[in-house]
Amino acid sequence: MFRQFSVSSLHRHGGDIFEDYLPELRGQRAVQLYKEMGNNAVIGAVLHAVKMTLRRVRWFAVSQGTKDSEAQDFLDECMDDMSLTWNDFVDQSLSMLQYGWSVFEEVYKVRRGSGKRPGPPTANSRYTDGRVGWRKFEFIGQDTLAPGSSWEFDEVDGSLRGLNQQPPIGSLYKALPVSNIAIPISKLILFRTTTERNNPEGRSILRPMYESWFYVKNLVEIEAISAERLGAGFPVFYLGDDVSKGATFDADIAEFRKMVRNVRVDEQMGMVIPFAKMGQGMAREGGGVLFELVSPPARGSISFSDIIQRHEKRMAMVGLAQFIHLGMDNIGSQALADVTTDFFQIAVAAWADAIKETINRFAVDRLFALNPEFRMEDHPIIDHSDVANPDLKVVADYINKTVGAQVITPDDRLEESLRRLAGFPDKDETTAIQVMTEVDGEGGERVSRKEKAKPANQPTNQRNQNPVAQKPQEPPTPTPRQPMRASEDNMNITEMLAVLDFAEKFSARAQKDKHHEDDKSLKMMEQAIALINTALSLRQQPAPQPTIPTIQQMPLPIPIPIPSSNVGMDDKFLEKFAEVFQQPVPVPPPAPVINVHVPEQQPPTVNITVPPAAPPEIRVEVPAPAIEVNVPASPAPTVNVAPPDVMVRNEIQLPHEVASRKKVVRDSMGRIDEVTENTRYQ
User: Fold this and answer.
1) Residues of the chain with pLDDT under 70
2) Amino acid 412: pLDDT
3) pTM across the whole model
4) What string of DSSP letters covers 511-558?
5) Cα separation, 616 vs 524, whole angstroms
């Protein structure tokens, strides 16, 4: 059950992969060919579109299972504390699209801050918590793998164990005694386009483009040759009888052949003919040389441009990037552009998910394993934002329809999602502005956005185009006003003194000025002053059973507005002020008196029984006596061993080194491949 009987079905020879049937698409030859294909305009546009689209994606840490904010912050810090940016790392990992695979070596560091520190040199870090973080993900170029032993496989089941890197010429590793660097799989992050047959080299997306690329490359060259040779005309020489036409190397016809092959339309175009022109001048009949540029034949049924364009469209189709050709031929519509762009964005999102899964499986798990203070079961992972934002107009229409049909109820989480979708900042309660929203169909009732929306008979924000007559409603029955809150009913002495001081100042000024004959306001103010004095006297007079309530118990129907001393008061304010204090004050009923008679009781009798004490226990510790024993020294015994008789039968001579020779074998590039040492003995 736990043993594997099958082996890998990967076609390989040693450390090289032989999956492709074309020899030029295997190993390092395939790497060089795919590098050349990447210089094609269409292929380069497809790869560039994928990379630039993923550049817009944000990468961040998210929690799974338990909400461990400390572990999530630690993962975010590790992503921003490397020697290269995270987007650069993702950009390099996308080289797997061109070559089929990309591989990185994980390098860690201990986060001990930056600057000089005692001890061995360590990598700089923004943090000083002593945890283990990522230093960098070192990219291993596809063309640096050792030919013949690129990959290391398990001989039992064929699983991948590592790779062998051959340092480039001129690197720091040229002085090492070994020619290849072996890197185990435990330190590698391997990105592949596909895991079919567990092939570590995957399958390049340029592989289906190879046929079209081959035709385009050759047809473009043929088209350029045609434009160069046939642009001005087809060169033709007419040779007379006086021109030697033999087969020898010094015959005149050989030179004219060279001339007709080398005719070019460029800045050095020209020709010198050391013969008379045939049919004119000093040339006799049938003699001389004539050179003409014959017009090319009429355009036939073959069009290089159409063939090249057809193959370029096929290459873009393989990369799901057909939209790059829209508009070039005056063919296409906006709907077609949207559909093709959607397919491309879906493909890019799939590549982003593949990168995310590989990082979480082979990088994040190892990181948290090196930091045992965090949980391994449900540690945070790395995730990415959406590749493309949806059409906000479509989203807004969908929200309006679902909310209007009462399928979705708006809440704070929906608002946060919409803000994040549109790229708006988070909501700030301190600067929020009350936006009035029309709720009913008639447009009369409006409520704040913070209040719960009431169901409307008509669609939201839409006038009722067909009003229906309704029966007249009876006026509502007035209800008595309820007492206000205690915080509004109570009025402390300081506020009352302020009102009293203001009223006295107003009364004194009114008596001083008296510009009018009506002293109604003056009388009302004097009554208000008398009421305030009465309230103050009632508050300051203690009474165990008050019959007149204090000012805190007086329910005031409205709060008392206290204007500033530099603002005048009109008759309405005075009438309202007097009305407040002239209302009858309800007197609460007196508190009932309850007499409780407690009969006298005799003091309780407490009997305490003390048990007899146990006899004390006495312990006496007597130290053990010290006993010394003197043993006299005795002489060491004498042992006599008689050796056996040994007889030498033969004499043996050991060989000694006579000469030593070293043999150095070098490869085709002059590098040391093998060193053999031979030693001769006598």
Assistant:
1) 66, 115-120, 169-178, 229-232, 281-283, 296-301, 327-340, 434-496, 499, 503, 506-507, 509-522, 525, 535-660, 668-671, 673, 675, 679-682
2) 84
3) 0.57
4) HHH--SS--HHHHHHHHHHHHHHHHHHHHHS--SS-SS--GGG---SS
5) 95
- Select from 103, 321, 303 the least CA-distant residue to 209: 321
Neighbours of 249 (CB within 10 A): 6
| pLDDT computed for residue 164 by the predictor | 94
Q: Tell me the domain boundaries of the chain.
A: 12-206+343-384, 232-294, 486-579
Rounded to whole angstroms, the Cα distance separating 43 from 49 reads 10
Amino acid residing at 32: Q
Within 8 A by CB and 6+ apart from 586, the residues are 549, 555
CB atoms within 10 A of CB 335: 8
CA atoms within 13 A on the CB side of 641: 2
> What SS3 state is found at 424?
coil
Distance CA 483, CA 487 (A): 11
What are the two backbone dihedrals, phi and then psi, of residue 306, each rounded to the nearest 5 degrees? -65, -40
CA-CA distance, 73 to 382, in Å (whole number)?
11
**Which sign, positive or negative, has the C-alpha torsion 315, 321, 322, 327?**
negative
DSSP state of 145: B
CA contacts within 13 A on the Cβ side of 586: 7
State pLDDT tens for residues 117-134.
Answer: 666 677 889 999 999 999
Sequence-distant (6+) residues with CB within 8 A of 678 are: 660, 661, 662, 663
What is d(CA 304, CA 218) in angstroms, rounded to the nearest whole number?
Answer: 11
Per-residue pLDDT at 377 = 83
Whole-angstrom CA distances from 225 to 36, 346, 553 are 21, 41, 108
Judge whether 103 and 190 are in contact, CB under 8 Å. yes
Q: How far apart are the first and last CA of the chain?
A: 60
Whether the Cβ atoms of residue 444 and residue 458 lie closer than 8 Å to each other: no
Number of H helices, E strands in the chain: 16, 16
* 553 burial level (CB within 10 Å; 0-12, 13-18, 19+): middle
Q: How many CB atoms lie within 10 A of CB 140?
A: 18
Query: Of 415, 354, 449, nearest to 94 (Cα)?
Result: 354
Amino acid at 86: W
In the numeric block, which tokens belong to residue 148?
């013949």
**CA–CA separation, 312 and 320 (whole Å):** 12
